[in-house]
Amino acid sequence: MRKWLSYSSPLIITAVLMSFAFKPKMAKVPETLKVTEPTLVLFPKNKTIPKSMLMAPPFLGSTYIGFKEALAFKESQGNYFTTNTLGYLGKYQFGIGTLQLMGVYNATRFLNDPILQEKVFHTNISRNKWILRRDIPRFVGKEINGTVITESGILAAAHLAGAGNVKKYLRSWGAYDVADSYGTSIAKYMRKFSGYDVSHIIPKRNPKV
User: Fold this and answer.
1) CA atoms of 143 and 140, how far apart (whole Å)
2) More confident site: 62 or 175
3) β-pair type (147-148, 143-144)
4) N or C end of the chain, less CB within 10 A?
5) What is the pLDDT of residue 63?
6) Higher pLDDT residue, 70 or 9?
7) Could you tell me the pTM of the whole model?
8) Whole-angstrom distance, CA of residue 149 vs CA of residue 155
């Protein structure tokens, strides 16, 4: 018995000492670092994403394709098969009267034919460029209502309000400005769609699809 104690005593003492040595100490947290209330979450509770960041047209640069896709996105979010509350049709939101000027009389066929819609858009740009053929070189580079006038801005505004109204806007130096039923004005389109390259579009008098 005495022999067993002589062997086991050092082991017991060592174990007791080791248990004290490895016992974790609880660090005291300073009062200033203690969390006493829920942390405010900045996103998304107290911060919203700007609408412009949620939805944007594809960026295709300042090319003609970039121009027509940006315009289409503004008109219909690029949807070929939509009709708005005023009866305007398709990706570029054409009215029946404008379609008839270019030889399209079947609205249902037009709405269901993306290739036809693209042809009509190009034809209408050529038509508007013919109507505004004298105004484009006269006003491009000039400043009206704080916007430097560009050819693409003029043609976009003509798509919105008609070439005749754009003529009046330019020749009145912005005093004559009209807006569509949703409140979008010629001046806004002049600014929004400025700087695209539409120089290759050939002006055509009374073109047909």
Assistant:
1) 8
2) 175
3) antiparallel
4) N
5) 93
6) 70
7) 0.71
8) 11
